[in-house]
Structure formats: C-alpha cells, structure tokens
Fold each of these.
Amino acid sequence: MRAAGYYRPLTADARSEESALRAIERYCRDGSHTLAHVVGPGDPPLREDDQYAGLVSYLESLGRGEALVVIPGPRHLASTLDDLVDRLTELDRVGGEVRCADPDLPDPLQNALESLPFAGRSPGQNRRVRESLLSKAARGEVLGRTPYGYVAEIDGTFRVEPGEAGLVRRLFDLYAGEAPPEISGGPENPKDDGPTGGPGLRRIAGVFNAEGLRTRSGRPWTPVTLSGMLRNRVYTGSYLRYGMRIAGNHERIVPRDVFNRAQTVMASRSPVRRRRALTPYLLSGLARCWSCGRGMHGQERRRSWTRADGSTATRAYRYYACPSRSAGIADEGTGEGEHPVWRAADLDRAAVEAIRSEPVERLRASFRPPEDDSPGDDQRAAEQRFLEAVREVASGRGGVADLATPLEELRASRAMSRPAGAAFTFDAAFRSLQTAHEIELHIAIASLVDRVIVHTDRVEPVFRTGQT
C-alpha cells in the first residue's frame, strides 16, 4: 500500500530525526508498504502548522486516493489527545489512514490514550485491553459490529450471509454502473475519463425501501448507510484493523474491480462540504433547575425521517433539560410538578430579556468580571463524552469520523467557559448584551449573574450582588 511518512523534531538532537525516519522506513518495509513521500521539518525547519499543511496538500493531490500516513508516534502529530483527534479526522477526510511506527502500538488512538494528556489528566493505562485487541486483529477476528453481509463464526472469523450478501452485490453493481470500455490511450485513442456510474444513493435507497427491504435492525435504508457500505473494503476480502491489513482474510462479496469503480464514482460525485460549526449553548454553566438546583444541560438531538419518495430529511433540535428529569426523579411537594425542559432558543431569549429589562444602575452594581477558569459542569460532561468516544473507536467500535461531533461539542463547551480576563469591563458587557454573538453574550451574562433559575414557565436571574 502507498504510504506517506510524517515526523517533526521533538528534541534538538539531530539523531532523534534520524531515528524517527528509520522507524517510518522500517514500518513500511515490514508491512510491504511503498514509502512514496516523506514530510519532515525541512531545512531550515518549517513551522509546525506549515509542515502539517504540506502533508494535507500531498494527500489532497492524490485525488482521494487511499494512503497510509506513518508517524513514529502520536506526539509527532499533536501534543494533546483532542488535538490529535482533530488532525486524525481531517486526514481521514482527505484519504489518509494514520498508523504509528511502533509495532506494539500501531493504532494512533490506542497509542495516544497511553501517551498524550487530555484535560489535565495523565495518559490512561489501557495496556491489557490494547494487547487483547491487537491479538484479535492479528488473527483477523471480528472487532466491533459485524459488517452487513457477514456473520461472525464462533472462532471470531467472517462468514458470508447469503441473503445480505445479495443486497451488497446489488448495491455495488447499481452504483458502480457498467465498466467503461478498455481504451489503451495515446494521441489517437485518448484515455477514458472513468466510469460515470449508475443511480445515486438516494435513488437506490428509495428502490430498496419500495421493495420492502430493510437493514439488519429493521429500519429503512438511507443514503448514509449505503455510503458507508460502499466505502468498506471488507467486502473485497481484506481486513484492516489497528494498522494490520490482511488480504484474503475471508471470502469476498464484491470483486475488486467493481469496488474500485464504485470508489471512483463516489469521489466524482462527492462535494467538498464544510464541517458543521456547533453553536455553543448560551446559558452553559448558568442555568439551574428551580426544583433540585442541578445545572441544566444543553442537548442536541437530530431526527431523521423518510419521505414517501424514499428520500430522507434531518433536523436538529436543541434544548436544555434538567438531568433529574432525564433520570426520572420525581418532584415531591414542590407544586410545579416536574423538572423543566426548554427549547434552547426560548430559554436563551427569556434569560436575555430578563437581564436587559433591569435598570442600568442595577446591572452596573452587579457587574464582576468572571475570573474562575475552572471547567464547569457542561465542560466536564463534554470532556467525559469525548474521552468515552475515543475509547470506543480505539476499541474497534466505529471509525475516526465518528469523533468529529464529540470534538466539536468539546470545543464549543470550552469556548463558552473561556474567562473574559481582567480587561473585561462593564461597558463591554453592556454592549455585548445587545449582540447575538454567543460567546461574548455568555461572558457578559456570567459577569452579571451567578445563575439563572429555570422554572417550567419562567426564568429568574440571580444577580451577583445577591439581589433577586
């Protein structure tokens, strides 16, 4: 397989660079990979961001071709676990599978859990779990969910499930379309531009659903589910997990030429999408339940549904909810009957209007620049969700792309917790109350109120001077 090496100087000793390059070369040699390109610090050394940008540019120049990115260890790519995940997700989007040259820890996430800090915590001790997973991967055994089209035998290997395999073959044949005629190329016989493919994923999903076909869980087919299947190399009989690629590991369902043709079609049809920017929650760390006093957590739920024509639609719903409500804890003798839940936009608007309605003199008397830079409940919860997601993917359940949303949520939560600093004045806070910029508005509110008590039908700001 084609590989690109990447390393950066971690010490001033030139021998460390030589050692890093030798480790990359040894990994490629032992794995029978072709080291096609190496991105190093340069002479004179490049800035780290410029060096990394060179790696991304190289991968993009491959035209979404598949390539390994071999690094000596996670610290060559990032200094913290969350920064590493940020770069892993970006490299995954441009076609790079990152592997560490360390033969005992080839998977970058498993390696990072043992070597990189996160949120002030020292690296975890996951050696026993990691050794078990590597042992299973070396034998080509199933880790995580079994791909559609296969079942797991008692010994952990793949076996074709005929009924599901038929749908998989049909999907690839429909999407890849007919193979283009073989053309040798040359000035009198120009090379063909490639396959044009068959119907799109939305149309194929509609056909399958109209025929009453369902996924393994009994749900209708969606373009997202079908796209994931088309990208899965397992259908060619290859097994890839934790840096180990085992060709001919199990019976193939899709011929390699059909699989490759489907990848070409998908690359030609895939638009370059900007990553979704997650909007922070305005009252993060401030909103509290009137009944139990616990912090209200901002949550987002995405609902998808299938239209009559087989196409799908998705909508995001954002709201604040008391964790006691989610846990089913009942109110006792409180009179209002339940812990509150509010749509995020409604609660934000009610809180801002309540604060804006106060006289300027009262707001000035309540003002105090926020100085506490310790993480709040929402930030700690986002950090825990992120760490759990990393551990899930590192254990074989899911892929790097699944970490994009937890990372966005983590960074949004941190942005809302960022202290304003001593230079933040009342005039700046008052001006921010008139804007719609979430982070500035959050800091302004936090400089004026200790908390916002949330009832089922109203809000009650508690100002920093203790006035109500």
Amino acid sequence: MTQTDPSGTVTETGTWSSTDKEISAKSSDGKIEVIPYILAGNKLSLTVQVEEGGIKLPIILEFTKQ
C-alpha cells in the first residue's frame, strides 16, 4: 500500500485476504486491520477508521469502476 497526503508518502507491505463482507490486511509488522466493505455493481465502499487527536472517526471511501 502506498499512501500520499500533504505530509508525504508512506509505503507499507503485507498480505491481505477477504470474505464476502470484510478485507483483513496484515502489515509486515504483524498489525491486522479488518475493513468492512460493500461491493454493489460497479461501486466499492470501504469503511475505515482514522484517528485524529485521540478520536477515531469512521471514513467511507467509495470507488466506481470505470
């Protein structure tokens, strides 16, 4: 995974697997993150948690296949 934001670019490696409703991502340091998703037609919606100032906020990412 490569993430780019105003503070810079971060690259992580690891493995992932999925079920009908969740993606499990395991980073190279052993941390596991479970990400719920919905795939409907050509739209993928992921629900992730972002921590800001000690508060976890749910963020929904939507992707549309072109």
Amino acid sequence: MSQPMTTLILAGSRGPDDPVARLAGVSHKAFAPIAGIPMLVRVVRALTASPTVGTIHIAIERPDLVRDHPELGLLLDGGRLALLPAEGSPSRTVGAALETLGSPLFVTTADHALLRPEWVQYFLNNLPDGADVCAALARDHVVQGAVPETKRTYLRFADGAFSGCNMFAFRTPQAVGVAHLWRQVEAQRKNPLRMIRLLGPLSVLRFLLGRLTLGAALKRLGTIAGARAAIVEMPFGLAAVDVDKEADMVLAEKLLS
C-alpha cells in the first residue's frame, strides 16, 4: 500500500451480559485489563507502532472513557486518535464509518488484545489486487500450532479450515455492500452452517459434502454483496485469538504476562 490507511477500532459495549466486561467489572470490555493494561490500550499501541496505519478512530458509546484515560487522552489531543459513535452493532458501526470516513478503511476490534504491529503490516501489505474488501484468516493448523490450548470457531471448507483474525480492509466504495451483508450474518457468527445458508441451496449442499472451497464461497458472497471479496491468509496463529470469554482472558493473561 502507498500510504497509511485510515483505521477504525470497534470498541462498543455488548451490553450487561458481556462475560468479559462483567468479569472485569467494567462497562465496556474494551477497558478490561489484560496483564494490567486495558485491551483497547494494547490495540492502540500496536496500531500506532505500525507505519501502515493512519488516523485511528475509536467507535464507542462512551467517549469520556477514552478522553479520561491518560494515554488515550494524550493521543486524542495530539490528533493521532479520533472518536466516532458506536451504532449498536459492529456491522452498523462499520457502515456508518464508511459513510463518514470513506474508503479505504482498515477495521479491527478492541478485544484483539494480542495484536502486534507486524500482523497489521503483513495484512495491509498483502491485500490482493482488485479486491473491494479483504479479511484476515488463519488456517486451523497454524492457530493450533501457535497456541494449542485455544478453542476457536472454524469455517471448514474443501481446501481447509479457517479462523478469523479480526482484521478487515474495506478498500473501495463498493465494500459498503459487504457491511450491509454483515448485518445479516453477525447474529450467526458462531454458527457457521447458518452463515453458509446465505450462499444458496447448491453451495450449502457442497459445504455439507465438504466440497465447497473458500474461493467459491467468497465469489458467491461477493456476488450477493456486489463487491469483490478476498482474504489474506495469515501465517501468525496468535492473530486468531481474541478475548470473548473467561477462558480467553486467562489465555491472554498467560501469553502477555
């Protein structure tokens, strides 16, 4: 890529039932500490250390939480960070951000506590030509090889099983169609079969028979969304580890302590 990419961190609340926020005693799991440092701060540090990242926008319902944090507040004052309202769900927030900020837009999440600058650089430097939207994925054996004790959700295709790495690049105006499609699937993100149903009966049958490739699934999703979709396959297994539950907190503490 030729210049740093405008960046969005999804840091909105997931409500009072969020297990990580509840365990940490905070309103937003973005501020749950891992090894003594709030996850959002860890993510911001990784992003600011990457030369491929431009202005970082944090989407959150409580901007005061960011302003009142000493380190984040200084970055706000210095113009390195900016604030956007969270819109109630990740897909709606991304859609609104694309309307406000335009494209290209790099998106990650505040619960990506292990995020490293080299992962960000690898992803953004390897975006496939001609793709409107790209997602970072890691193969199951890469994830398990890096962190055998983790339990991830995998999408299993004929050419491999993949886990998401919480990094997305919305590269062109057409990518907004993927944000709209995302609204339909985000309630089913832990149920791969229901997500696959969006592909249509023939693709579902091929998926159930183990004959649907990831490339074919991306082509079909791109047709539905009106955008060309692609992936960047990540060689970093830890990139697939985010913090969604207590076991993830324990694992992240262990890895970062």
